[in-house]
Design brief:
- Chain A is α+β, with helices and mostly antiparallel strands and about 210 residues long.
- Chain A is built from two helices and 13 strands; from the N terminus they run αββββββαβββββββ.
- A 13-stranded antiparallel beta sheet of chain A has the order 1-7-8-9-10-11-12-13-2-3-4-5-6, with helices on one face.
- By secondary structure, chain B is of the alpha+beta class.
- The interface of A and B includes residues 57, 75, 77, 80 and 81 of A.
Chain lengths: ~210, ~230
């Protein structure tokens, strides 16, 4: 009897574990084009940046600069002035590493940072590539990729962007929250759920 | 016969002229080369040829500095993006091996170096580092301390050339090892001629970006409490 209880608990646990965190999203008709108003429109904006990765803490200054060719440059320097990386995101989705220090020059690290910034700046998000769902009064505008889906989550009237989530088929992987200033956020917080990493940005008052 | 004399006189005149001309060309050449080389490198600065005696004097004079209290303005220039960010704060140095750099605007960031210990404090966290455990930290720490203590010319991480104008010494430091070369193409240290104290540091990166730190309101040899450099 005890064995049966234990095995059913294990099976239930496994089934629960297999269930996608997004399984209860229900398709809904919504104006997905409204998401465009939350897309940051950086000109030249400096942020105080804090990065915590698996117990290591790194701080510095992050620059977002819109270029004349409509690409976006993201440059991270430390407070003393050393440039850690300089990335370019072009409007056609291409990505270029202009500069990166040796310690960060690893494919996995660069890909991770690329994805994080693309999520933060809502790169290539427009109404055409989004499907809408709902749960608990929130609207999930989903952009499906090969193995991951980005969810841009607003309130039911699309009056505010509540958060952005990147997820595998079953689990959340990354979450972005923003505070203040729709076009140029006052602060941005990104958290990874599959390992211990956060990026916190706070706009510099110059 | 007459023709021969005229010819020989001409040839004498010619050889004199050619000597004069060659002498002048040499002088002009030297002037051009020296002025070109000093302009090409650092406008208004000329090379200090006798490095050993400068080194000796620099060490003697710098040793007279027991402490420095100063404000600073830092300008980071991103050359390709044509952007710059200016920050400011205060700088304290106390012999031996104590440096405190505190950025106050537009962000808060404190770096304290005290012997082999280093403390970095930003808005969110405090990080204590044993400089000995990290080669790069060790090198950066050494640059800072050597610059203000006047022992930078003995720092084996760099080759140093020295230039001067009527007001400043200019130390051009080129990193030797790969680690520092990745971050710095050269570091230019400008020191006041009258007291040998550092007036600015220009860190030039291989990308063409640079960071210029200018020290202002310098006070030398005033009392600075040890507590300012405490790493708890």
């Amino acid at each position: 009897m005890r064995f049966l209880l234990l095995s059913s608990l294990v099976v239930a646990g496994l089934l629960m574990g297999c269930k996608s965190e997004y399984a209860d999203l229900k398709p809904v008709q919504a104006d997905v084009t409204c998401i465009g108003k939350f897309k940051p429109t950086f000109q030249v904006n400096w942020y105080n940046a804090s990065v915590d990765v698996i117990g290591k803490h790194l701080s510095g200054l992050l620059l977002f600069k819109a270029m004349p060719d409509s690409s976006l440059r993201v440059v991270f320097t430390n407070e003393v002035g050393i440039t850690f990386f300089d990335f370019g995101f072009s409007s056609d989705g291409k990505f270029k590493v202009y500069q990166v220090i040796k310690q960060l020059d690893k494919k996995a690290v660069i890909n991770l940072l690329r994805k994080d910034f693309e999520l933060m700046v809502m790169r290539e998000v427009d109404g055409a590539n989004l499907k809408s769902f709902t749960r608990n009064g929130e609207i999930f505008m989903a952009r499906a990729g090969k193995s991951e889906t980005d969810y841009f989550i607003t309130d039911k009237d699309c009056a505010s962007l509540l958060r952005i989530e990147k997820a595998s088929k079953k689990k959340i992987k990354t979450m972005v929250t923003r505070i203040g200033g729709e076009q140029v956020p006052d602060s941005v917080f990104l958290k990874h759920y599959t390992f211990n990493m956060t990026i916190a940005l706070k706009k510099l008052k110059r | 016969m007459r023709n021969e004399v005229v010819n020989s006189q001409w040839s004498m005149v010619n050889s004199r002229w050619s000597m004069v001309i060659s002498q002048w060309s040499l002088v002009i050449g030297v002037i051009l080369i020296t002025s070109f080389s000093s302009f090409a490198q650092y406008p208004g600065y000329s090379t200090v040829a006798d490095l050993p005696s400068f080194k000796k004097q620099f060490a003697i004079e710098a040793k007279k500095i027991q402490s420095i209290k100063s404000a600073f303005v830092q300008e980071k220039n991103l050359s390709v993006l044509a952007e710059k960010i200016t920050s400011e704060g205060n700088f304290n140095f106390k012999r031996e091996n104590k440096v405190r750099i505190a950025y106050e605007k537009p962000f808060s960031y404190i770096m304290i170096m005290n012997g082999d210990q280093m403390l970095v404090k930003d808005n969110q966290k405090e990080n204590k580092v044993n400089v000995k455990s990290n080669k790069l930290f060790q090198q950066v720490n050494k640059i800072m301390v050597d610059c203000v203590q006047g022992t930078i010319l003995d720092n084996k991480d760099f080759t140093v050339k020295v230039f001067q104008n009527d007001k400043n010494w200019l130390l051009e430091m080129t990193p030797v090892g790969k680690g520092l070369k990745e971050f710095f193409q050269t570091i230019l240290v400008y020191a006041d001629k009258h007291d040998y104290s550092v007036s600015s540091i220009d860190m030039r990166e291989p990308s063409g970006d640079n960071t210029l730190i200018r020290f202002t309101h310098k006070e030398l040899n005033t009392a600075i409490p040890d507590a300012l450099f405490a790493i708890k």
